[in-house]
Every structure is written in C-alpha cells, then in structure tokens.
Specification:
3 domains, 5 strands, 378 residues, Nucleotidyltransferase, domain 5
Amino acid sequence: MNVRYIVELSEQELEQLEVIVNDSKAGPQKRRRAQILLACDRGVAEVVIAETLPCGTSTIYRTKKRLVEEGLDAALSELARKGGRRKLTGKEEATLVALACSKPPAGRGRWTLELLADHVVRLVEHDSISKETVRRRLAENELKPWRRKMWCIPAVDAEFVMRMEDLLDLYAERANSKRPVVCFDETPIQLIAESRVPIPAVPGRLRRFDYEYRRNGTANLFVFVDVNRPWRHVKVTERRTKADFAECMRDLVDVHYPHARVIRVVMDNLCTHRAKNLYEAFEPEEARRVLRRLEFHYTPKHASWLNMVEIEISVLSRQCLCRRIPSIRQLTREVAAWKRKRDATGARINWMFNVDDARRKLGRSYPAPTKPAVANAA
C-alpha cells in the first residue's frame, strides 16, 4: 500500500523552485520536478498535474516521496540508475585494446568492429560479443583502429635541434627592414578544365558539376611570406627547375627587397634550394652579386612545419585553389586577386612557438651531450 506524502514548502523553497522553473538553462527534468512540487503545494490533484505537464503519476509520487524523506535537493535530482552488467571484465577489455593496437590479420588492411568481435571471442570466455560492445569499449579508450594518420616522424639529433632553434630565434627577432626574414617554398597544382558547363545553384538545390574533367597539365607556385609584416608573393611558373629557383632569388633581391642589406631566407632541403644553382643559372658575377644579399636558413629534415610559408600555402589552398582552374593565365589572375585582398586586410601569421617551448615540449627527445673523456694520470 502506497504511503500518501504531503507537500508543504517553505517560503525559501518556493522562491528556489520559482527560479528553477524560469531558468532556461536548468534541465527539462529538473524544471518538471519543480513544477510538480509547486503544483502539489497549491493542492492541485495528481491526475490534473499528470495531464497538464504531462508526466506519469508514478513520477509525481516519487518526487513527493524524495522531498519528504530526503529533502528538496534530492527531489529535484535524477535517481541513479543501475546499468547492465558489463560483458567484458577488465582483463578481457585489456585483451581487446591490445588486439586493436596490433596489426590486422593477413589479408585484411585494417581492423573493423566485426573483425575485432570475431577475434576477441576466441581469446575470452564468451560465446559471442556484439559490435556495440566492442565499439563502446574502444570509445572509452579513445581508440579507432580503422583510422590512421600519415605523420612524419623526425630523428631529433643535434643537427635537427640546431636548425630548429636557429629558425625559432629568427622568428623571435624584432622586425628589421634592413635584415628581413622571408619564408619560401613551392607547391604544384593541376590545371583542370570542366568537360561540361556546371549547373548553378538555386534555392533548394546545390550547384552541380560533372564528375568528368579535362586535364590541362600542371603548374607550380613559388610562395614567399614575410615573417614580420603582412606581405606575401606568389609566382606562377610552368615548372620548378633550378633556374626558376634562381630567378625567384634574384626577384627577391632586386624587386621585392631592393633596399635590404641581407635577406634571411627560410626554406626546406629540396635539391633545387642551393646557392650553387645560381651559378648554374647566371654568370658568376651576377650569381655572386645576388648571393651577397642572401642568407639561407634551412629547416630540419622532416620538419617543414617550422617553415611559416607552409601555413600560408594552406590558406591559399583553402581559399583560392579549392576548385578547378583550367589555365596558367586564369591561375595567375586568381592568385593575384587573392594576394591583393590578403595583403590589404593586413593578414599575418601569428607564430607562437619559441625556443623555450621547444625545450619544454621536446626536451626528452634532445640528444644527450657526451661527456669528455678524462685521461688517467700516469
């Protein structure tokens, strides 16, 4: 036989419940319980409350019971619910995790939920394991073995550290118009034309273009970005030969920075990025004249992320190159328009990684200094 519980709220409790009812950030269940208690305090019948809110009479009974026996906070909170017993024990879950982190079986390129469930059931004392059980246990351990990420894993040796800290010191220097720091790199792009005229978008229908396209060859983009001011330059060429690199360096000296004493150029270790290439492209006097104004700083191997221009190329790709461009002429025109707009808005790269950060985050990977041998006294 159910006990009849009487709701009699104090002034303080009434004010608290009114606040909860009018608070849109309070959860819907909590607000509903507050409404139940307010209605019960006014003497509204349970049947009327159940039809008005709406809710079940059992919910009203439980809310009143918890108020009388445990207090207002308990009446407003959710009762803890007992979940079903976990199918996998801690040891069995560890077996699943170890299997998911191992290589897939022969003939399979990756683990799937079905494949894991099939293999785990052979290793534990269960007749069957569902895909959902596998998925939940993997999610709790933040594992998705069917996904993978390509990553460049560098060897952090003394040369890596030296080049990294050299670049980070360059980026941390105060701006000097006589000694600017310019990051340089190139990126290829395919020239692709539409085989059929795209259908423009209209309300309720996306823009449509044909999956078939026509290849018109390739082009190359040489990209420069100034570390200390909102300036970048993109030069479109048909290829990226040693001679093209040499012309870019001469443009940097004579066109873009004619008044600078020395231009510090940051770039990667591509074979075309060498001072000797200027001697292959120009007369010795001309090559020497250009190189007197240049100072090359190379990124560590497998660490192109230390070159700011990589960020700029990513922005260029997302904002301008994410479409089909059929010719070098149109590519040059589109890239120039993007460059003008980006310069006009004062866009710059906010580099926030410094030497202190590198030593703190990569300190364990730094090479340990060798101690000099001490000669034994005769």
